Amino acid sequence: MSFFARFAQNRGALVGLIILLLIITMAILAPLLFPESPWRMVQRPFLPPLSQDGFPLGTDTMGRNVASGLMHGAWVSLLIGLVSTSVALLIGVPLGAIAGYYGGIIDDVLMRFTEFFQTIPNFALAIVLVAIMQPSITSIVLAIAIVSWPPVARLVRAEFMSLRNREYVEAARLVGQSNTTIILRQILPNTLSPIIVLASLMVATAILLESALSFLGLGDPNVMSWGYMIGAARTVIRQAWWLSFFPGVAILLTVLALNLVGEGLDDALNPKLSRER
Amino acid sequence: MPITENQSADTVLSIRDLNIALPKGADRALAVEDVSYEVKRGEIMCVVGESGSGKSMAANAVMGLLPKGVNATHGEILFEGQDLLALTEKQHRALRGLKIGMIFQEPMTALNPLMRVGAQIAEVFEAHGQFNPKERQARALELLIEVGIPQPEKAIRAYPFELSGGQRQRVMIAMALALEPILLIADEPTTALDVTTQAQILELIRDLQQRRGMSVMFITHDFGVVAEIANRVCVMRHGKIVELGDAKSVLENPQDAYTQALIAAIPSNAVPPHRETSQVAPLLEIKQLNKVFRSRGGWLKPAREVRALEDVSLTLARGETVGIVGESGSGKSTLGRCVVRLEHPDSGELLLDGVNLSQLKGDALRRERHRVQMIFQDPYASLNPRTKVGMAIAQGPIANGTPKAAALKQAGELLDMVGLGASAVERFPHEFSGGQRQRIGIARALALNPELIVADEAVSALDVSIQAQVLELLEELKQRLSLSLLFITHDLRVAAHICDRIVVMQHGRIVEQGSAEQIFLAPREAYTQDLLKAIPGREAPVAATA
């Protein structure tokens, strides 16, 4: 059975994948459907949804097109979510794997380093980092990655510690496999399930973190994001519900889709489940 | 025709035409089919079968402890005139402990790790609203004395982890007996214990049963245990009863082919045959090996030291099988792990064909690794669930420089050799049974053409009939490939079956070593004699013959 067929056996995963593809299409089509900058004021402010042609989701406090913002924002939010999670995994997984596999002094040193990051409140650190580096997409992605890798390292370390003394790992050591091969071939594949689940949640947290940063005015001033839209609409949530509702729904759907896809990937990668069904 | 019995007046428990259905998708529709048997007053009824035979299911139904999705669909279980299957959960709860007691296989997990032993026994009285707290403690102490725990006044204040396995099982028995039940159900109560402890617990159960006039339903996989303890036997297979009758007649004159096969599959009680010991230069020489495990002390706890190996010296000739026998904690596994260098010995020499393996490290060690391989105990934990079987076997040769395609081809040949067929290469470990997985483990150990194979309890996790097959395979491969084996086991019967020489270990030291024949016929040390005496189902120790 092919990988995709196994993946598709999980209905939820398929739904998640479809939603995700829709959001990506939205992001790609944004410049074609709304060639004008989403920041431009195009109508009078506080136009409710469906009240005027060309503004299906209404306009915001400054008279900007909400539909346009939503589509342009999809790109930024997805990019920030995915890239910052990948960077966080790139830092967290190797650190956790090395700490968990070797133990001893190496573990102590790496974990003290991890704790150094964990003791500073996430959000405060992210603000400081973005403020120092000047707000831009790159600095935001980096800041989010830097504050979100410690849990990954912790999780991977714990998994490695419990797996490193399994008999099959000992068997691999006995036949003379190198430590690198054992880490990559024997242990890492067996830690994938929790990593995938954690990663799909991290994408969601990253999107939310970016929203919070944008809300504080630390977003990239050149790009529209869902977080910025919610942040800007917060003060008028009772007069103009649609301003925070639509980007909110977009974030919700994206996070849900990522979780479903993550779960489906986990099932498809797990040889035991895939053959039993 | 299902085998049935006539009910008589002194029947305590009577199971009639019981069917228990498994949930959809299980390997068979009924866990237990048309099962009828009785437990009479004051007898020990042994239910024997291999794993998956449904031997525990009926007992679980009696206790009202069937797993979710598993239901009794037909038949009745009569206990004191009422049908247990018709009881509500509340009525069942009132019965459990009070009229029917139960002991489990693993006393460590059956006891609450955070509760003192005395409190756990007292809890049994509390659950049934008997006595006041002070009397409960007094009763708990009496029970602990009755089950023969050393220093009962101290033990009552102990936590489960402070007791040994045998003592924990005694506590379980004390709990089960607290309310003087009429029927005691014992589900593999000695399987997790050492032979000598097993012998003591069996004696305790028999003794208590006679003193109290209880009935016991004893579930086991071991015919040796049956011979020790049973009045009557019920042999089960695939959910059906294949033979039912007097222990003596079933054991001596089994009617059913399966029972005969099971009894024949027990590694023989008979004295091992005399084997020629080769006088060639030793392949493996262990000299004065020492290993101490230290746990780091904390703020308030002192550092602990466990001497796992103390001055252990032995030799193994090429083509020879040496058995290391001992109880848990004897250091036998540590010895095996030092030989394959999964542990680093503190001092001493490990000479393999003259090369000292004991002090090698890093890459130098990795290059020598292929010479000594290991077969692991747990067939479920020793294969990576995400690696295909062929790759699991081929990864050794690949790590040592064989091209991937050639290594995979060789893996297929090896799988063929251990009787699984080359097509197994493409499958995942979970598609195989325990015995088949152990064959894969053997193929993996053979892949590097090792000079020595260490088998650490390689057949302990398997059913007797499978055990016999795997031992046969090992014996055959040994002949064909002239392998040398270091065979670590707690089971003297298995050791007798396969080993040329036997080394008996206790507390990290070698107590006695000699040819298998000599160890069995003329054990010199008292400890070896105790071990031999404790083998269940063994006749009185054979006197030394000329």
Automatic annotation (TrEMBL), chain A:
Keywords: Cell membrane, Membrane, Transmembrane, Transmembrane helix, Transport. It comes from Vreelandella sedimenti. InterPro entries: BP-dependent_transpt_permease, MetI-like, MetI-like_sf, OppC_N. PROSITE patterns: ABC_TM1. The keyword Amino-acid biosynthesis does not apply. One of its GO terms (cellular component) is plasma membrane. Belongs to the binding-protein-dependent transport system permease family. SUPFAM superfamilies: MetI-like (SSF161098). The keyword Transport applies. The lineage of its organism: Bacteria, Pseudomonadati, Pseudomonadota, Gammaproteobacteria, Oceanospirillales. Its main location: membrane. The chain crosses the membrane at residues 12-34, 74-102, 123-147, 195-219, 240-261. Residues 74-262 form the ABC transmembrane type-1 domain. It is found in: Cell membrane. It is a multi-pass membrane protein. This is ABC transporter permease. GO terms for biological process: transmembrane transport. It comes from the Bacteria.
From TrEMBL, chain B:
Transmembrane segments: none annotated. GO terms for biological process: peptide transport; transmembrane transport. SUPFAM superfamilies: P-loop containing nucleoside triphosphate hydrolases (SSF52540). The keyword Hydrolase does not apply. GO terms for molecular function: ATP binding; ATP hydrolysis activity. CDD domains: ABC_NikE_OppD_transporters (cd03257). Residues 15-263, 284-532 form the ABC transporter domain. Keywords: ATP-binding, Nucleotide-binding, Transport. This is ABC transporter ATP-binding protein. Coiled coil: none annotated. InterPro entries: AAA+_ATPase, ABC_transp_ATP-bind, ABC_transporter-like_ATP-bd, ABC_transporter-like_CS, Oligopep_ABC_C, P-loop_NTPase. It holds the Pfam family oligo_HPY. It comes from Vreelandella sedimenti. PROSITE patterns: ABC_TRANSPORTER_1, ABC_TRANSPORTER_2. SMART domains: AAA (SM00382).
